[in-house]
């Protein structure tokens, strides 16, 4: 979910589908702190009365009797405050800072540290960072870390021949030297011709993603927007040099107070149906219709419109809450056919970076209505009708039309003859093949056979590529063609369910059945409510070994991520002073986000390393090393948790362990290896006092319905879910990540709340 975008909820991708990122990442070893005593401060109990003040503060866990008597949202609120109240307090302060953007970034870094300290989840890895082979010319699509523009694909240059390693390296260097995207494409094409490569007009690749809807405005799943994004254009789009360029908006202006954005819509652009037949012209009203559709599907992308969680479109909250009866008072207006105006409640610095995201996709009103769709803004009871049910029930204004969609098989595309920028289409045909990973060598063999353009090399494929020799060559596929794929903005996490409500899949109670007894369930719930127990599990998790099962020992650290927000996501432009634990600390210009997070962790005495200043040739990074795994620290935190849990009547020992259910995708070697690596790591490090149960799933669909395709926390069928789902940024501000873990935040369902 790279980036889940659309509220970029990301499913764990098969290594086979990680073929797009194209530059190598640093792989450096940090200096991990030696074992230290964990923070002895007891968890604050906000849902039960504290004990009398004693010489040492007694541990007080949640009052489950009182909690179980509450309705679901009340219980979620209480558990959120208990486990994440400190983070949210710091985070709301950071969000309120909208004028000094450097201070805002630093305060966000402090809040992130508090979030990591809670232990309710653990960053695990990003996309990429593994060995790969490919025919796709590197950097011929945007590598911007947010939005959906990376899934447009039409600018890709795809060679008929696999790119040799040395040629790929030279191309990446040429990209860095080019000042504009046009210069880069001209240079790349000349280089390829000189080296004897020929270009293909078709881009074929594979993925494990499964699509549910073709309505990009009504989905929060990357696995949907992955297929849809190339069918529409946005107001602005990022080019191959990561510069935002005019697309369906020819130009725009921003008011001096930062509240009003006026876009001038490109005249003459046509909407077409799946057959390429004209159905209307793109006008400013398409974005008004889009906003009305967003509001009708508020649970999907509406958070990005709100003042609390997003850009703060004027009166959006009031409309959704029923305080307004006239949608024209909401801050989106079609002044005329070619003039669109957005008005915000308050300045939102990252607003323009949201333009490539699904919530700002246009919607042709008349076509939507022809499919039976309605708008509550027009006084109708909302229904999408047949809109988005398949590729014939959407309108197109993007680079591609869908020519075939066969579920769990292949989705085929061809260039849209009415596309506004036809000269930019380098691959007029595209096919996305479904690969569930059950055949560990399929993706690799398909690349060898010319069926797919490229693939990441799983551990099995890596061994094979180091043995196979192409016809007419003396070196192996690996020696000739391998590279290390770059990481992106996606952060896949290990989630801890602090409020488990189901021990089977919610959609099919015969699937994913837990072996825990009723007593086990109560003991596990109590343990996972203890911060020190959660941190013990996090520090017992050998993420490198986990990752090695898919990318091999050589690259097991490359894609590891140590914080939710990537360490280099933002940097301070001017010297900035904030308070950390009551002391003024000045961060110099150029300080990265991850450095601020590390400063707060150090001040709090939490033995995590999320920033390595020596990484990436001294630039510094929060990726490429394991700053969490430390068996000594894990045991120290566990011992503290054991003492605390004993005070509430829960014994934890090798004879009486805590049982943790995790989903196990038994249908694919990739998932099986990772699940078993997690089990071995936790059980061995914690001396058998925690036992990991692998809850078996025999197909991809059932597996994803245990953790990924859940609509609220009560549907989450696991105690822990290591590296299964994650988040990618929707726009260029740390808020795009941290919003997801505030009350009612989108990813809170992965910790059993809301």
Could you characterize what this model shows?
This protein is α+β, with helices and mostly antiparallel strands and 754 residues long. Helix content is 28%, strand content 16%. The strands form nine sheets. The chain has a four-stranded antiparallel beta sheet with strand order 1-25-20-2, with no helix packed on it. Strand 11 and strand 12 form a beta hairpin. Helix 3 (101-118) packs across helix 17 (593-604) and helix 15 (531-540) packs antiparallel against helix 18 (631-646). The radius of gyration is 25 Å and the shape is globular. The relative contact order is 0.18. The model is unreliable at 1-55 (pLDDT under 50).
Overall, the morphology is: globular
Helix content: 25-40%
The portion of residues forming beta strands comes to 15-25%
Sheet with most strands: strand arrangement: 1-25-20-2
The span between the termini is: 21 Å
- What is the β-strand count? 25
Overall mean pLDDT score? 92
Structural class: alpha+beta
> How many helical stretches?
21
For the biggest sheet, the summary is: 4 strands, antiparallel
From the alpha carbons, calculate the radius of gyration and give it in angstroms: 25 Å
Describe the structure concisely:
By secondary structure, the protein is an alpha+beta fold. It has 21 helices and 25 strands. The N terminus is likely disordered.
